[in-house]
TrEMBL record:
Similarity annotation: Belongs to the cytochrome P450 family.
Name used for this protein in its record: 22alpha-hydroxysteroid 23-monooxygenase
GO function term, MF aspect, one: heme binding
Organism: Dorcoceras hygrometricum
Listed CDD domains: CYP90-like
Amino acid sequence: MEQLPFSESWVFLVVIVSSVVVFYASKLLKNRGEDEREQKAFVVPRGNRGWPLIGETLDFIASGYSANPVSFMEKRKSMYGDVFRTHILGKAIIVSSDPIVSKTILQNHGNAFIPCYPKSITELLGKSSILQMNGSLHKRVHSLIGVFLKSPQFKARITRDIERAVQHSLSLWSGKTDLVYLQNETKKVTFEVLVRVLLSIEPGEEMNSLKREFEEFIKGLICLPINFPGTTLYKSLKAKKRLLDMVNKVIERRKLSLKKTEGNTMPSIDVIDVLLRDLGDPEVLHQHRLPLDFISGNIIEMMIPGEETVPTAMTLAVKFLTDNPVALAHLVEENMEIKRRKDNSGEEYSWNDYMSLTFTQNVISETLRLANIINAVWRKALKDVKVKGYLIPKGWCVMASFSAVHMDERNYKNPYEFDPWRWKNIGDAISSNIFTPFGGGQRLCPGLELARLEISIFLHNLVTTYRWAAQRDEIIYFPTVRMKRKLPITIMPLQH
Ligand code: HEM
């Protein structure tokens, strides 16, 4: 092959090298441009910091006391969009009322978010509480509890226990000549169930003192974060200490009996049992070296999400049904039908029987949507998170507002109406982004099915055996959802 003269080969080389340089430079510039455009495309949500120190807290609280608890959200959504910035309860915070953004927050891929609660709550919970722990330990504890609550043995036993507790309470209420304050009375039923699930304590003095101390303890969850003798937080921390002592005693008893029955493969009877057995596993102990008071602390903290929520849902279901005689009649019909079948066959009700009462489950879904018992969850971003055009900067607190999604007419037609029939059409939405009363993702409520079962059993026994008359009352949404007068009712046996 003929060789190019030196000068020509040099020119050829220069041309090749410069084309390569130009190619890569333009690629680099293009990438940088794209990066910049991308950076610009993701914006920190707009909003208002409000007044110095208090921010927009007063407006936020006022909406919680009004008939339209999402008015705070709606006003800001209309000004800034579905994701906005505000400053409430002492924190600058990004609020999401967008189902996709909230889903990203809940799913928490890449562990970008950790729970973020007001200071008084953080202090009361302790770092090793399931509500605050993160990473692999959280995953393990969450799944242990979830698996236990789904086990067939647990389901069969707890169905009988709930029936007994509900039937006993209803018979006491119906014998009363004075008013029954439903929100308080249902708490007694569900507390009994909760302590059975967690630590198998039977009704009696031990359960009563556990309840007394627990009530003192939770008063501190929403209070000024001042820990000084006489303050609510101080009393609450003292109550927690007494609670820990009580639960520790139960654990010691159970440890002894576990030792005696070492090697047995009987299924766990409660959450203490589940956690004790797991800690007894030498591999787990080696990995985490968890002290026993990890269990007692968690038992107490697991009472928090279960204690208020279920009785509030029961009470609000009764309130909504009282105000909607057509829905009530439909519910009675469905429940009477299964009662007749069971009475004729003499068969016991199973967990599945209750769960397959379609209209009853729709009443429960609609109650949870409308009541928004847990109206939001709070998180803190550990890194910059980009989603749907928004940038949630590292270090910011973010609130995924469930109520703003549940009450948005783009998601639900006539959102303020109690309409259990809507679930006939949108049944699938139960598992979608627009219906999240039990949260979602990594921290999806493990008590979800148990809560539905408790409410079903309560409604079934109430409507098939009794009738009631409720006095006027109204719902308050701040700091937690509740009836202003605890929903006073009179209750009497059905005349057959
Ligand atoms: C109507 C009743 C209930 C509602 C509306 C409800 C709602 C919720 C929500 C929204 C969360 C997620 C919190 C977050 O993401 O930070 C949650 C978590 C939790 N719930 Fe429930 N809950 C209910 C009943 C129960 C019951 C009966 C139990 C008890 C067994 C329970 C145990 C828990 C626990 C242990 C967690 C923490 C899960 C974790 O962080 O991994 N809940 N609940």
